[in-house]
Amino acid sequence: MADKKGPTKGSGGKHRNKLRGRGPTPRAEDRVYHKAYKARQAARRRQAADPRLAARRRADRFTSDSDDLVIGRNAVLEALRAGVPASQLYLAARMEHDDRTREIVRLAGQEGLNLLEADRLEMNRIARSGSHQGVALKVRPYRIEHQKNFPTNHPNYDAIGTLCTEFIESPSQPICLIQFPEKDTKIRKFAKLRNPCRHPSSVRFRKSAVLRTRNYQNYPYFEDYDLFVRMLTKGSRFYDIQEPLVSMRVGEDFYSRRGGWPYTKDMVDFKWRLHKLSFLSTSQALKGSSCTAGYALFPMACASGLTKSC
Asked: Is pLDDT of 11 > 80?
């Protein structure tokens, strides 16, 4: 009897590939023919045309997260006066100029810095803040790079200072080297005579140590000196790197602020404040007050000459 022809049971694997699954169904926005895909593409085009993102892309060409920036009119002006090495000055377009911005532009021109004008959105992106007052200065990071590893390698120190040079025309032509003791023990003795660090441009300190002393207090001319003394009395340890990492611009205004009767009175009052903090003895406060008064009441020409001679 002949075998009956027809389909046999099972496929024997003949159609295995056709039976294989094709994976999960793609999302609607991933299917090129779906309206959700077209809507997503349109949203991307609108986003690319957003002026805020366009400003961000333009700003990214000039700045990065590793840049050191000084923002604000007062901060930038003081940095330029102090001769902090910088490479670029950013100015907001159509901002109102005052005496500070005019001096900033003048000093930047003398230093040969690149001046870049940016709109408000670009300035916000460059400064990573809206409180830039239309001015941002890109400084060279060499000093910070030199100092920033010291607290990590020496965790027992809370404030790291450096030596400092002063100049009138150019940082390459210093007129004076401001020196400070290196170790904490000598710095404590030195602080009984004068400010143990040149601030704000040449010292880094731990935030916890500053907050432990209730931060800055209102003492005109001596805010930094007062903070450092209170840090020393609270047990903070200081160290001064024996290398001039900062150059500061000086002039007649610089010396005139450190003389005269108002300055003398404030300094004498401050010496007796250090006496109340038990940082100075009575004899040290009397000696410091008399020496300070004698120096501050000198004619300014003599005082500047003494300061320049160091």
From this structure: no
- Give alpha helix (H) positions in 192-260: 207-212, 223-233, 252-256
Return the closest-CA partner of residue 178 out of 150, 153, 197.
197
Q: Are 284 and 232 in contact (CB under 8 A)?
A: no
Residue partners of 297: CB distance under 8 A and separation at least 6: 259, 260, 261, 264
* Structure-block tokens of residue 57: 């892309």
Q: Does the N-terminal peptide bond of residue 155 adopt cis geometry, omega within 30 degrees of 0?
A: no
Q: How confident is the model at residue 307 (pLDDT cuts 50, 70, 90)?
A: very low
pLDDT band at 238 (very low <50, low <70, confident <90, very high): very high
pLDDT tens-digit map of 27-74: 888 888 889 888 988 888 887 777 666 655 555 555 544 457 888 888
Max CA distance (Å), the chain: 137
Residue 121 carries which side chain, given as an amino acid letter? L
pTM of the model: 0.52
Neighbour-count burial of 204, counting CB atoms closer than 10 A to its CB (0-12 exposed, 13-18 middle, 19+ buried): middle
Judge residue 185's burial from the number of C-beta atoms within 10 Å of its C-beta, 0-12 exposed, 13-18 middle, 19 or more buried. Answer: exposed
CA distance 65 to 75: 20
Residues in the chain: 310
First vs last C-alpha separation in the chain? 126
